[in-house]
């Protein structure tokens, strides 16, 4: 496998892991909890979901051929908490991820050194992917952190439970 193919495989898997963490965190919360914000300057999970989805749809629709900041995007509206139901939130979440992952899956090794534009600024495809990796991972991290704060002891860990690192490592080595 070439370096480009290896890179694409790695980032596709990493993004799926990031999405899975967001999915598992959101699944643990009810609609009221999804709207909770620490203060006026903080974003609720519902707002983060709207923002991430809006970003994904804008950046990854016609990714190779149009500027990633679409004229149809209203970024400021993404920060208004207007989602009414958990079903609506999940629909918005899934739509963004579907657009993004479909576009990511369509990329070939030859596309990696091509150039795309985001807000008129030129980036290589690799740079655009890495930029989104940092962006989406940060926001999913916020979702997980807020979920943990809300659920407290009821939180179901998304990774290795405390005190079980050694057991987990030993099991991984056996598989």
TrEMBL record:
Pfam families: DUF1572. It comes from the Bacteria. This is DUF1572 domain-containing protein. It comes from Lysinibacillus mangiferihumi. The lineage of its organism: Bacteria, Bacillati, Bacillota, Bacilli, Bacillales.
């Amino acid at each position: 496998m070439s370096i480009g193919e290896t890179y694409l495989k790695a980032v596709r898997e990493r993004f799926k892991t990031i999405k899975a963490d967001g999915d598992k965190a959101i699944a643990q919360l009810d609609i009221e909890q999804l709207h909770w914000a620490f203060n006026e300057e903080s974003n609720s999970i519902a707002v983060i979901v709207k923002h991430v989805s809006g970003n994904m749809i804008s950046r990854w629709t016609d990714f190779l051929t149009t500027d990633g900041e679409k004229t149809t995007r209203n970024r400021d509206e993404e920060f208004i908490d207007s989602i009414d139901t958990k079903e609506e939130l999940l629909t918005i979440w899934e739509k963004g991820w579907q657009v993004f992952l479909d576009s990511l899956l369509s990329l070939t090794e030859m596309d990696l050194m091509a150039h795309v534009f985001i807000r008129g600024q030129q980036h290589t495809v690799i740079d655009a992917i890495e930029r989104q990796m940092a962006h989406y991972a940060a926001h999913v991290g916020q979702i997980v952190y807020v979920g943990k704060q809300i659920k407290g002891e009821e939180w179901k860990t998304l990774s290795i439970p405390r005190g079980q690192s050694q057991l987990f490592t030993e099991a991984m080595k056996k598989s």
